[in-house]
Amino acid sequence: MFRALASVLLCCFFLEASFWVHFSYGDLTTCSGIVPMTERGDKISITDFGGVGDGQTLNTIAFRKAIYRIQHLRRRGGTLLFVPSGVYLTDSFNLTSHMTLYLARGAVMKATQDTSNWPLIAPLPSYGRGRERPGGRYMSFIHGDGLEDVVITGENGTIDGQGDIWWNMWRQRTLQFTRPSLVEFVNSRGIVISNVIFRNSPFWNIHPVYCSDVVIRYVTILAPPDSPNTDGIDPDSSSNVCIEDSFISTGDDLVAVKSGWDEYGIAYGRPSSYITVRRVTGSTPFAGVAVGSETSGGVENVLAENINLYNSGVGVHIKTNIGRGGVIKNITVSELFMENVRTASRLDAWHRECHFHRHLSFKRYPPGHDWTKTSFLELQCHKGGCNRG
């Protein structure tokens, strides 16, 4: 066991104050003000649409009817969809703009384990194919595409992906397509996720991709340490993302900043930028804060501070591979507290799990990766070995 304090500065550049939007409430610094919480004048309950929280009734039609109503009535200021205490089994479904999904205390939304009817959607353009398998991918349990002004919040209700059936398919190599995330927003802005517990995601937990102005705060994310690829929060080719005051314990990286892979990510050309991770606590066999390994669009202007890790693999991990491309710059990590963590920090240019295209042209996509002026400063370890990879 050891306790380490790592104050790590990566890619030293001066960041103008205007780039980082921070607010101070008393002694608490927060970036959450980039997306103000919206008070909805219109409120409906899932029970108004036939929702039954007995843990057995399938509520897919009820959720889709309720969201259809929100989408088409377009109440001024949007609508709050209330999910009362109970266990609501449902297939995956799409959200709509100008809505709040509110889970009361004791409310549990459970994903069905019937994978045969799970919707398929197209691969993300910055990936070019499914993350795990060729072709399309399974839609996330809760999904939003091209939306604005969406809130998922409540009184610490639970969204449970019941991911064990998907994990077993991955272990047995019987997956036909890439597993679904628990929550995914694509091409969306003005997103707030707060005061909700996320459990047992089939794949990545919260995945904002091609998004801007996203706040994720006061969430708890849980998955067994041996659950494959259950990343906590993965900002992907997104900007102005605020992650604060959360507890994450999963089977993969707690927070991983991404931007697509290989020729697809390079061609799409959208970096992840202005990502703040603050006051996050958790444990993982992998990294507390990661950049990559999907970094082909570039990653810049990331601030991570006041991070507390225990029983974990790596504190900070920047990972990529030959041919991936992209520029990583202006990454600042400070006040990283670690206990029983194998490796404090690692720069990995040959990440063993990286996807690789055998037909990749190195004339067009050079194998080098630009970590401009990367350095580690003031790394201190106490009471045990602490490696710098």
Automatic annotation (TrEMBL):
Residues 1-26 form the signal peptide. Keywords: Glycosidase, Hydrolase, Signal. InterPro entries: GH28_Enzymes, Glyco_hydro_28, Pectin_lyas_fold, Pectin_lyase_fold/virulence. GO terms for biological process: carbohydrate metabolic process. GO terms for molecular function: polygalacturonase activity. The keyword Hydrolase applies. Pfam families: Glyco_hydro_28. Belongs to the glycosyl hydrolase 28 family. This is Pectate lyase superfamily protein domain-containing protein. It comes from Gossypium raimondii.
